[in-house]
């Protein structure tokens, strides 16, 4: 029984000690706006509450714009720079005193750097303070989550060259990421038409395309003889951004398709005289054979007439 009482008293002592240590709490953190694009700003508002039994003094609230990686002994082994910076204010806010059961609000205006990729980041928050009547400086650490978001901008074009009716062609569809955000899980699909037959698979998986980069997919298409001179090629793109938002976009690429005769007339295709030369050669050979046969017959006829004479 005495052991149980001793255990309960020890537990109560530990709880009361922890309550004293945790005099400072962070009930809420808000951002306006809650998502920012590269080059834009946001205001972070942090509520600092003193729920202890003593006033706290010399309170310093600081945002750390680098992520310090420590080993098991607390030594810094690497530093990861976070793509944010203070904007129009300091990265540290101080309060002389926060009375017991009172709160203060620390506000910071930050800017996302121009090279900030879309995604979620964590900014370390450090708070130091003293309890009234004590010289020991206590610290509290936390993390603030911030989302950087930039709308993906995808463009599609066709690298087709000269397209002829009644022929099979390989067409490269180029997908360009013009936005500031990377995209992933990208897939491209070609729609059907009465004017062509798709000889390859209709969809191609590409995957990731970084910002300011491109990739392409190849499709084999046979254009029918009755196809018009201008054909609309429907292209569908699906992908996700860095925050896993899903996008679906549709494009219509205009392709110019020519008959062989029209392409030659416009100077897009050189006239080939191979068949003309081959035909002329064939005619000459036939004429030569006929000439030899006629000559041979005349020679035989003449020899026969001389023999009879």
Strand content: over 45%
- Give the CATH superfamily of the largest domain: Immunoglobulins
Would you state the CATH class of the largest domain? Mainly Beta
Please state the overall shape, judged from the principal axes of the Cα atoms: rod-shaped
Nearest-angstrom radius of gyration? 41 Å
Nearest-integer average pLDDT: 81
Number of strands: 21
Summarize it.
This protein has 309 residues and is α+β, with helices and mostly antiparallel strands. It has three helices and 21 strands.
Can you walk me through this structure?
- The protein folds into two domains: 22-148, Immunoglobulins (Immunoglobulin-like), CATH 2.60.40; 154-265, Sandwich (Immunoglobulin-like), CATH 2.60.40.
- It contains three helices and 21 strands.
- It has helices at 2-21, 260-265, 274-308, and strands spanning 24-25, 29-32, 35-36, 41-50, 56-63, 66-70, 76-81, 84-86, 92-98, 102-112, 119-131, 137-148, 154-159, 163-164, 168-177, 183-190, 196-198, 203-209, 213-223, 230-241, 246-258.
- The strands form five sheets. Strands 1, 2, 4, 8 and 10 form a five-stranded antiparallel sheet that branches. The chain has a five-stranded mixed sheet with strand order 3-12-11-5-9, with no helix packed on it.
- The longest helix has 35 residues, at 274-308.
- It starts with a helix and ends with a helix.
- Mean pLDDT is 81; it is low at 1-21 and 272-276.
Secondary-structure map:
Elements: H1 2-21, E1 24-25, E2 29-32, E3 35-36, E4 41-50, E5 56-63, E6 66-70, E7 76-81, E8 84-86, E9 92-98, E10 102-112, E11 119-131, E12 137-148, E13 154-159, E14 163-164, E15 168-177, E16 183-190, E17 196-198, E18 203-209, E19 213-223, E20 230-241, E21 246-258, H2 260-265, H3 274-308
Parallel strand pairs: 3-12, 14-21
Antiparallel strand pairs: 1-4, 2-4, 4-10, 5-9, 5-11, 6-7, 8-10, 11-12, 13-15, 15-19, 16-18, 16-20, 17-19, 20-21
